[in-house]
């Protein structure tokens, strides 16, 4: 059975509602070709704005999400997009369940 690991930028676990570079939380979900999904964990980023540059924040997120096949956020800057060129990247807003359904239809 095929599987895609999906990282979703969210503040509440229901909506895709955070910018990639500013998201403090990413919901990590395994999505299977039979339509089922499994919540793996929530990855938290605790960096403080004054402690690191924008590029450092992006690098931390990319490193912590390197095992993910798909990244979903409401916005992703060009710098991050270039560094995520080996991933499927979706800019979406709305319910997480709708984004997962779209991934199933397009990529599974």
UniProtKB/TrEMBL annotation:
Domain Dinitrogenase iron-molybdenum cofactor biosynthesis: 13-103
Gene3D superfamilies per the UniProt record, alphabetical: Dinitrogenase iron-molybdenum cofactor biosynthesis domain
Pfam families assigned to the protein according to its UniProt record, in alphabetical order: Nitro_FeMo-Co
Domain of life: Bacteria
InterPro entries: Di-Nase_FeMo-co_biosynth, DiNase_FeMo-co_biosyn_sf, NifX/NifY_domain
Protein name: Dinitrogenase iron-molybdenum cofactor biosynthesis protein
Species of origin: Caldicellulosiruptor acetigenus 6A
